[in-house]
Design goal:
By secondary structure, the protein is α+β, with helices and mostly antiparallel strands. It is 23% helix and 34% strand. Strands 1, 2, 3, 4, 5, 6, 7, 8 and 9 form a nine-stranded antiparallel beta sheet that branches. The radius of gyration is 18 Å and the shape is globular.
């Protein structure tokens, strides 16, 4: 009986232990419903997160050549301003990243695929999930080729 109580206490403490965020880089883009987002995320060995996600809203009436120009502008914004992004802490439970003490998910990590999903909040709308793919190095454009 005593061994089972000690084991149970150990398991409860282990379950409550702070989870270590994954290290790496992720990037991706989203275009739909009049919104365009380009995003980069980098998590360092200290667990600090660099995140940048410039967006354009009200793009639903854009013509194909305008959409391409908007993608290029967002990509250039990422490349030009990335070095100025300051790392910041997030609470991480093993899957979900939240602002410290916050409730709303900011990012969701799938350990099996190493895919990160950035949750973008624009106005009073529900979160917009932006899927990001893992990359060794950031690219000139965050959108997948093809």
């Amino acid at each position: 009986m005593r061994k089972s109580v000690v084991l149970l206490a150990f398991l409860l403490l282990a379950a409550c232990a702070k989870q270590t965020p994954p290290q790496g880089r992720w990037e991706g883009g989203y275009a739909g419903s009049g919104v365009m987002v380009a995003a980069r995320v980098e998590i360092g060995p200290d667990g600090m997160v660099k995140l940048m996600a410039p967006d354009i809203t009200n793009a639903d009436a854009a013509k194909p050549n305008q959409m391409q120009e908007m993608r290029a502008r967002l990509s250039a914004d990422l490349a030009t301003n990335w070095d100025g992004v300051q790392p910041r802490p997030f609470d991480f439970d093993g899957t979900i990243f939240r602002k410290p003490g916050g409730v709303a998910p900011q990012m969701v990590w799938d350990k099996n695929s190493n895919q990160m999903t950035l949750e973008i909040y624009i106005g009073a709308n529900p979160a917009l999930p932006v899927p990001l793919r893992p990359v060794d190095n950031f690219h000139d454009s965050p959108w997948p080729a093809g």
